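Researcher: Structure for this, please.
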Amino acid sequence: MTDIPKLDDLIKKVDDAKKQEKMDLSSDQDLVIAIMNLVSIEEHFFFTSMKTGKENYLDLLQEVRKMRQELLRKIIKDYEGEVWCISKHLLAASMRLMEVGTKQHSMGKKEEAREMFQKSYDLYNLFWGLNLKLVDVGEIKKIDDNAVNVQDTEKKGLMGKLGALTKKLIDCCIE
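Model: Predicted structure, token format:
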């Protein structure tokens, strides 16, 4: 599918960058979760406006949208084409799937919840893969469904690789 550098090489690059205080992925992760919630707030203001017929909710939506855009710029500094919009929609879909999973889990539908949570996490990891430039979209081509590239012997798939990488790179407990 695409070339992803060796996990050890990527971890070393991130560790080196952290030492130079160029990136704080723990803080960025918190910011991304906040952005996900802002997208959801935008959606709720829209639907509330439509359900109540009150346009003042659309004004509030615009205020939240401005804030979300400002904060998203802190994460997505360099993008091409529609990566900005793709990123926003990846986060929005991830948040919604997380909410669906949470509802399924509360109803005792644990397998359905697990599937929704996995899809949510896959989209979240794809967001980071795109924005940390771990996914070289210029070289994407069809190969084995579970392989990331032709040298991939583990065949966990892109989402599996990005998930493993995210676990190693982003530790929210680091202060």
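Researcher: Any notable elements?
Model: Confidence is low (pLDDT under 50) at residues 146-152, 171-175. The two ends are 35 Å apart (CA to CA).
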